[in-house]
Design brief:
Elements: E1 2-5, E2 11-14, E3 22-23, H1 28-31, H2 34-38, E4 46-51, E5 57-61, E6 66-69, E7 77-79
Antiparallel strand pairs: 1-2, 2-3, 4-5, 5-6, 6-7
């Protein structure tokens, strides 16, 4: 399993060693906190990803955005980082 992330909220994943990549669809209009949208962030750039173990991981990006997963990246939810600067 692998992940790739980048500009415009792009998050890709593969379950077959990179032979096929699929887009993980995130509806940023409903996922982002209102404070981020008020600052003009509608599709944040994602900068880094870290998995603590096979199930628990974090993604960070623009405006202090943090996403977390507890199921190996099958589902992501916005977490409060406490920051407004890019991570």
């Amino acid at each position: 399993r692998g992940f790739a992330l980048g500009a415009g909220g792009g998050l890709l994943y593969t379950d077959n060693g990179g032979q096929v990549w699929q887009t993980y669809a995130i509806d940023w209009a409903t996922a982002l906190p209102e404070e981020m949208i008020a600052r003009g962030i509608f599709a944040p750039n994602l900068y880094d990803m870290f998995f603590i173990d096979a199930a628990h991981g974090l993604v960070v990006g623009d405006g202090g955005l943090m996403l977390k997963t507890s199921d190996g990246g099958k589902q992501w939810e916005v977490a409060d980082s406490g920051f407004s600067n890019s991570l």
